[in-house]
Specification:
This protein is mainly α. The protein has one domain. The chain is built from 7 helices and 3 strands. A 3-stranded mixed sheet has the order 1-3-2. A hairpin with a 4-residue loop joins β2 and β3. It starts with 6 loop residues before the first helix and ends with a helix. This is Peptidase. It comes from Metabacillus litoralis. Pfam families: Zn_peptidase_2.
Length: about 230
């Protein structure tokens, strides 16, 4: 009933997202079995790069799970999953350096990261309301609800798009820092690119899917206004 031409692109983005998730897990598993020449663990790499950039106050902690790694800007903590924290593989050091990249972004007030932090409280609120407004507007054929849903949903889409340069920049910093500090050698960069590249693709797929969904609802809204 609600099938729309944009659904083809949305399904394609969903397929890309699923494939990217598969690649993330596959590449992490593959490169987790390849040790770095430096033999440093993810925790040691994170601590070393943080200290080299004057971030002595930022802690490095181990957390349970796999691929649960993240940087907490409120607590100023780099949290690494146990396989990354204790591992000394190409996958481990790649993920650890990437998360430290976010800590350095925070220190330097990297524009896209600052903007994302400002957007987060608003997105946290609107993302829970927008789907109900959009679905309700479609079911009840109420353009006003769809229009309001579009406005709220646009904040979530903007957040997804802002996230892209944040993640790509963190990965770029990670690769440069690991090479500069001798953590990886040139022949190990291929593995780093595979691990971080697959992770970046998940963000691209998510942003595309959200953007296509927004365009779909905008087109429905415009069409509804035209028919009135």
């Amino acid at each position: 009933m609600f099938f729309h031409p944009m659904d083809f692109l949305i399904f394609a983005a969903l397929g890309l997202s699923i494939w990217a998730q598969f690649k993330v897990k596959g590449n992490f598993k593959k490169w987790s079995e390849v040790a770095t020449s430096s033999q440093k663990t993810g925790a040691e790499v994170a601590r070393h790069i943080l200290d080299q950039n004057g971030l002595y106050q930022v802690k490095v902690e181990a957390v349970r799970g796999t691929l649960t790694d993240h940087y907490d800007p409120v607590s100023r903590v780099v949290r690494l999953s146990e396989p990354v924290y204790f591992g000394h593989s190409i996958a481990s050091v790649s993920v650890a350096a990437h998360e430290v990249g976010h800590a350095i972004q925070h220190q330097q007030s990297y524009g896209a990261l600052v903007l994302r932090h400002k957007f987060f409280p608003l997105v946290n609120l609107t993302s829970g309301i927008a789907p109900f407004l959009l679905i309700g507007g479609l079911l009840l054929n109420q353009l006003n609800l769809i229009g309001l849903g579009i406005i709220l949903f646009s904040f979530a889409v903007a957040f997804q798009l802002i996230t892209l340069p944040v993640e790509f920049n963190a990965s770029s910093r990670a690769k440069k820092l690991m090479v500069a500090e001798g953590i990886i050698r040139n022949n190990e960069e291929h593995g780093v690119n595979k691990v971080l590249g697959a992770a970046a693709l998940t963000y691209v797929a998510g942003a595309l899917m959200a953007l296509f969904e927004l365009i779909k609802f905008v087109m429905i809204f415009i069409q509804g206004n035209t028919e009135e």
